[in-house]
Every structure is written in structure tokens, then in C-alpha cells.
Amino acid sequence: MPHRSFKVSLGEFKTLLPYLVQYRRHYILGFGCLIIVDAAQVIIPQFMRRAVDLIASGSFTWQQIGTLCAGMVGVMAIISLGRFLWRYFIHGSSRRIETEIREKLFEHLLSLSYDFYQKQKIGDLMARATNDLNAVRMSIGLGLVALVDGTIMAASILVIIFIQDARTAAFAVLPLPFITVSILIFGSALGKRFKKAQETYAAMSDTVQETFAGIRVVKSFVKEWWFIKKFADTNDDYREANMALVKLYGAFFPLVVFLSGLTTVIVLLVGGIRVVEGFMSPGDLLALFRYLQMLIWPLMGAGFTVNMIQRGAVSLKRVNEVLETKPSIASLAVPRKPSEQADAIVIRDLSFAYPEGSAVLSGITLTIKQGAWVGILGRTGSGKSTLIKALTRMIDPPQGTVLVKGVDVRDWDLQELRGCFGVTPQDSYLFSDSIRNNILYKLKRRKRDEASQGQVEQDERLLNHAAALAALDTDLTSFTQGADTPIGERGLTLSGGQKQRTAIARALIGEPEFLILDDALSAVDAETEKRILTGLLAERTGKTTIIVSHRVSTLRNADYVLVLDQGRIIEAGTPLELIAGGGFYARTAALQQLDQDSSDV
């Protein structure tokens, strides 16, 4: 079983072969320097042997001793230079590989579809990109060094001591098979416990991320104590998992040291007798002791190598699980081109259900002309947001059910399709940056100090225009740093209405062909809403607009309004037609008008 586990561990590293090939010259140079260092280390006991034998003979000169000392200093200088070079080449390459894999992982995460993030926890993904990649780097850096260094040193030392005195060496290596068995037994258990430690670290990271992301809710409900306890529990789990690893690790290395120490006792007994009998010189015995001391590192290194490989394999498997995940939504190899003459949006008998639930949309059929204003009204959970996600292919609608500009959304290039839309979702997510950068986000500009003067001036015009349309211009003047005001994580320093208007400005900045406001005016007052809608109406030429709202007042200027209930269209028509129809729209309008009249009293 341990042998099988070790074989599986090695199999995980196949994915690293392209990187190892890419940096093969660095590794070759590094291992070349490592071999030189090992060869130089093996020579030093020979200097010691000759010096002791000279002194023991009684017939020596200080020049002879000085020459030997100078030779040792020269060899140690070579060792020092060689150690610097192999660290530079091997550790430097492992750092570069870690950086490239982290970039690849981040890029791949961005390519994965919306449903992936519904199943995965952010804390776990962060742990894979940090702790796990650190373990991978250790395995292809220090782990490989321990493997090569230990193998060369152990082989060289064994050859030398058997040549020097085969009988003493044969007794000295008797504990070695027990060390090998210990390595195989402990190696498998180390891998399993390290995996458990990594999983508990991911859980702890997720707790931290969730707590600080929802800090407003935590404080408003005075639940700090509950999250402190939750973190303490996960922190204790992480400590216990690491302690289980440390206990095994702590038992493993002392055992190896004990077994290797037995060789010293054996050499003292057997070698001492050989010196007394005249078969070995005092220098030979000293050199043999020194070689056996040097042999402890390769034996320890064997356990260290197994530990590093097990850790690296477990972590690499966790990283590969993400890298091997394919996006559930992807562009065709040869996407189709849209038609400018076709209707803006055509929906044909669209039905959709999430994997974990019942149908969210049933039999939706709709045609939206270019430049039209369409309103969508419905109760919470009626399928409004799901319908919007189908248009931008955040979810995958059935083939042939959703067409944008005459082309099925599944046949579009994803970036081109989503680039046509300016979407303000229900959750007005803002980045921890300035208001300016949040609004200019879609333009993908470089940093302002790297942009040309013309780009800066154009960005400023676009920013001011979008802010005015979103009724954010007056707010910007009240901020101490204007548009450059930092807003904290997720827009923490802004009010709900300011966050929504910033998100609307961001959607408008790229002058999209399709503008979608998904309940994006719920946190603004009636006067501000009127100003925003009036501004959008004045610039509606050629731009298809879809507004999702719970408020009838938001939809009063729409060309066409859909009323959804339980995933179906129950009413459709102009606002006046729906008022006259006396259905859900008309009842909602009457109730909201009554509420407004009551608030005015």
C-alpha cells in the first residue's frame, strides 16, 4: 500500500513536465553544481585521514600539514560557491514555475463558468493558489535537491567506505534496511495527514473570507461572538490536523536518527578492533567516522524527500483538480457572426431549470426590436434574473431558444457577446478601488500614468457623461477626492443608492448596444430615478434597453412590458394596455400608487 501511494504521488508530477523541460538548462546547471559540491564534500575526509596519519606517524613537517589545510580551504571555497549556484539555478527555477502555475491557475479560474463558483468556496480556491502552490514549489525545489543530493552522497560514501574497509562497512550498514522500511511506512501516512491539514486550512480561509466580506451584516446583527467561535473552531481543527502531522513527522525523524546512530556504535566497536589489530590506521577510522556522519544527511534526506513529494503531490492534485475543470460554457471553435439587420433579441419557447431545482423558466417566447425599451415585472423568484443571465449566457439556455442579433447565443464568441451588453445586476458589486476605476472598468485602460494624454482626456469625458446619466455627478463633487475617492471593499463606504448609480455608470461607459438594468434602481429615490430614466430616454437611439424592476413607476416609459410569474409570461403589452387589462400589473400599480399617496400625507 505505501509503495502504491508513492507511485501515485509521482504520477501527479506529470503535469509539471512541460515546466521542467522549459527550465531544463537551469536544472542541469543547478544539479551540475550540486554534484560538484557533493564530490568536494566527499574529498574532505581524505584530507583529514592523511593529516591524522601524518601526525600519528610522528614524522611530518608543518609544511605538509599547511598544504593539507590549504587544500581543505580551497575545497570548502568550491563548496560555498557551488551551493550558491545550485540554489540560484534550482530554487530560482522552482520559484519561476510556481509563479507561472499561479498565473495559469488565476487565468483558468477566470475562464470557468458561473456555475463553478456556485459549487466552490472562495477560501478553498485561495488555499489552492497559496499554500498548495507553495508545497508544489518545495517539492520541485528542495525536494529534488534532497533526492539527488541524498542519492549521490549515499552512493559515493558507501562505495568509499567499502573500498576503504569492506568488513567494517558491512557491519556499519546493517541498520540501513530498517531505515528504508521506515521511510516507506511513514511516507504514505504523511501524505494523508498533510492532505487533511490542507483541507482544514481551506475551511479556515473560507471562514475568514466569508466573515470579512459580510462584515456589515455581522456587525448589524451583533454576531461578532458567533464568528469568533466559528473561526476558533476551524482554527482548532487546523491546529489538530497539523499536530497529527507533526506527531508523525516528529516520530519519523528521531527514528531515522536513532537507526543511523547505531552505525556509529558499530564502527566504534568493529573499527576500533581493526585499528588495534593493525588492519586500519587511525586516519582511516577517523575518515570512516566522518563519512558515517555525512551519511546521516542522505538518510534523513530520504525521509525529507518522501515528505516533500507526498506534500507536493497532494497539493498538486488539488491544483490540477481546478486546472482540469473545463468551463461548462465556452465559445465555439468557429463562432458565427451576428446580423445587424436581425431583431435585437428573439426568445423561442425558452424553458430552463437549475441542476438542483425545479423549472425556473417555462415556455418564454419574446421578440425585442433594435432600440426598443422593454420592462420586466414580477414577484421575487419569478425568473427575471435567470432570463437576463440567459441573454448574456451566464447560464446555458437550450440550443435555438435565445438569439441575439439573429445568432444563437451558444454560437457567439463569448467575449464578443458579453461585450455587446452593459449589465447592472441586482448585486451592485464594486471593486476595492477608486470610483473612477470602477466606472472605467469596462474600457480596460492601462494605469493613468501609462496612458497617453489623449486617452486620459477621452476617459474623463466618458466618465463625466456616464456619471451624469447615472445621476452620480452631484455625489462626486461632494467627495473629498472626487472620482478618485477610494470606496473600500465591495463599495463599503458608499450608500446603497450610490453603489447602484456607480454600477449604472460602469454599464453605460462602454456605450453598449444592449443595456440591462436588473432591479438597479431599487435603492434610489423617486426623483433620482426620474432623472436617470429621463437621461437614458434622451440617448436611447439605437440602444436596446431592458429594465427589470418591482416598481411600476420605473417601467412607465417602456415600449413593452412583460409580467412574469413562476417562470411564465402571464401578461405582456404596453404600460397603458396592462393598466387597462386589470391584471397583476394594474393591481401592482394601484397598490404602489396607494402607498405613495399614503406617504405624501
Summarize the helices and strands and which ones pair or pack:
Blueprint: H1 2-12, H2 17-22, H3 24-57, H4 62-111, H5 114-119, H6 122-140, H7 142-164, H8 166-172, H9 176-213, H10 215-220, H11 224-276, H12 282-323, E1 345-353, E2 359-368, E3 373-378, H13 384-391, E4 402-404, E5 407-408, H14 414-419, E6 421-424, H15 435-439, H16 453-469, H17 473-478, H18 496-508, E7 514-518, H19 526-538, E8 544-548, E9 560-565, E10 568-573, H20 575-581, H21 584-600
Parallel strand pairs: 3-8, 3-9, 6-7, 7-8
Antiparallel strand pairs: 1-2, 1-4, 4-5, 9-10
Helix pairs in contact: 1-9, 1-12, 3-4, 3-7, 3-12, 4-6, 6-7, 6-9, 6-12, 7-8, 7-12, 8-11, 9-11, 9-12, 11-12, 16-18, 20-21
CATH class of the largest domain: Mainly Alpha
Structural class: alpha/beta
Strand order of the largest sheet: 6-7-8-3-9-10
Fraction of residues in β-strands: 5-15%
The tally of helices reads 21
Average pLDDT rating: 84
Assign a percent range to the helix content: 55-70%
Apparent shape: elongated
Distance between the termini: 80 Å
The largest pleated sheet is described as: 6 strands, mixed
The overall number of domains is 2
Number of strand segments = 10
How would you describe what is shown here?
- By secondary structure, this protein is α/β, with parallel strands linked by helices.
- It has two domains: 2-323, ABC transporter transmembrane region fold (Up-down Bundle), CATH 1.20.1560.10; 345-600, Rossmann fold.
- It contains 21 helices and ten strands.
- Strands 6-7-8-3-9-10 form a six-stranded mixed β-sheet, sandwiched between helices. It has a four-stranded antiparallel β-sheet with strand order 2-1-4-5, covered by helices on one side.
- A hairpin with a 2-residue loop joins strand 9 (560-565) and strand 10.
- The longest helix is centred in the middle third of the chain and has 53 residues, at 224-276.
- The protein is elongated, with a radius of gyration of 36 Å.
- Mean pLDDT is 84; it is low at 1-8.
